[in-house]
Amino acid sequence: MGNKIISFNDVVKQYDDEKVLKKVSFDIEQGKFYTLLGPSGCGKTTILRILAGFTDASSGDVYFDGQRINDIPANKRQVNTVFQDYALFPHMNVFDNVAFGLKIKKVSKKEIEKKVKDALRMVQLPGYETREISEMSGGQRQRVAIARAIVNEPKVLLLDEPLSALDLKLRTDMQYELRELQRRLGITFIFVTHDQEEALAMSDEIFVMNKGNIIQSGTPVDIYDEPINHFVASFVGESNIVSGTMIEDNLVEFVGKRFECVDSGMRKNEPVEIVLRPEDLTITTKELGKLVVTVDTQLFRGVHYEILCTDEQGNEWMVHSTRKAREGTEVGLIFEPEDIHVMRFNESEEEFDARLESYEE
Ligand SMILES: Nc1ncnc2c1ncn2[C@@H]1O[C@H](COP(=O)(O)OP(=O)(O)O)[C@@H](O)[C@H]1O
Ligand SMILES: [Mg+2]
C-alpha cells in the first residue's frame, strides 16, 4: 500500500428521502490517476463536492492526509476543482483568470507572475496571458481552467467531466495531455467521466459506480478482464453475457455445452452468468467451433469487423474479427478457457457485499 492521501469511510449523502451515496468507502493514494466511472446520476459529482467541501456528508468520515476534514471549509482544503463548464470569468483575460486565486491569497505580484507563467507553460499555452477568454477555442478554455486549478499547487486535482464538451479529436488529444500533465506534476488526479473508453485509457485505478455505490475498483485491466457483475461487464466495454451453470470447479455449462474454464470456488450447479468479450472470440468453421452460430449482420469498424451472430438458443453474440464473415451462413466460434469470465447470478446485495469483503482480505 502506497501513501494514502484520502479516505472515505461509510460516507452517506441524503437529500430529503433519497440516498444518493450509500455508505461509500475508498482510499486514494498519492500521485495516482483515479477515475470515477458510472452512468449519469450515480453520485460522481456528489463525491467530488464532498471532497472539495462544497457540500457536507450526511454521515461518515472524510480524511485527508490522516486528518478528518468533514468540518474544514472549502478554501482551507488542498484540493482544486476543474468544472465541466470551466467556470471561467468571461470578462477577464487569461492572466487574471489564472491569477485570481493567488490574488485573493495576497501572494506578491512578482510571485504571481512567475506562477501564472509556469502554469500556462504546463498546459501548453505559453505567452497567452493577455488573451481574452472570448477569443479562445473550447480546448484552449479547458486548458485555462486547468491552469487556474494547478497554479494553486493543490495536492489533489478534481476534474468533473472536463472533456465532455469537446469534439472527439480534441478530446483524444486532451486525454493524452491530461495523462502527461498528471505524470509531470506527480499529484493525485480524481477524474470523473461516464465514458468507459476514456476511463480505461487514462486511469491507474477506476472506481465503477452505480446508484450511489462503488461496485468495483481496480486497474483498467482488472475491471475489463474480471468484471464483478452484470452491471460492470455491460457498462465497461462490449460484452456477450449469457446465463449458465457452474458444474464444478473449472467446468461451466452454457448454450447446452460444457467448457473448461479457470474459475472456481462456487457451489456445484450454481447458476451463473458468462461474459465473453467480442475480441476473445475467433470465427472458424462450423465443424471446429466450440459454439455454432449464424451470422446475422456485420459492420466494418476500421480496425475490425463487428459481426453479430445468433446461437441455437437465440442468444446474440458479437465478434470482433479482422476477417469478414458471410451473412446468413453458419460458422463456429472458438475461445480459450481463460476468456470465459464467470459471474454469480442474481446475487443479493448482502451476498455481494460479503463477497466484496472477502476480496479485500
Ligand atoms: N442539491 C441536490 N438536491 C437533491 N438531489 C440532488 C442534489 N444534487 C444532486 N442530487 C441528486 O443526486 C444524484 C447524484 O447526482 P450527481 O452526483 O450529480 O450524479 P453524477 O455526477 O454521477 O451524474 C442524482 O440523482 C441527483 O439528482
Ligand atoms: Mg456529474
What does this structure look like?
- Keywords: ATP-binding, Cell membrane, Membrane, Nucleotide-binding, Translocase, Transport.
- It is an enzyme of class 7 (translocase).
- The protein is built from 9 helices and 20 strands.
- The two termini are 13 Å apart.
- The chain has 361 residues and is an alpha+beta fold.
- It has helices spanning 44-52, 94-104, 109-122, 138-150, 168-185, 196-202, 220-225, 230-235, 349-360; strands spanning 4-15, 18-29, 33-37, 59-64, 67-68, 79-82, 156-160, 188-193, 205-210, 213-218, 240-248, 251-254, 257-260, 270-276, 282-284, 291-300, 305-311, 316-321, 330-334, 341-344.
- Helix 5 (168-185) links the parallel strand 7 and strand 8.
- 33% of the residues are buried.
- The chain is globular and about 75 Å long.
- The protein folds into 2 domains: 4-225, P-loop containing nucleotide triphosphate hydrolases (Rossmann fold, 3-Layer(aba) Sandwich); 238-360, Nucleic acid-binding proteins (OB fold (Dihydrolipoamide Acetyltransferase, E2P)), CATH 2.40.50.
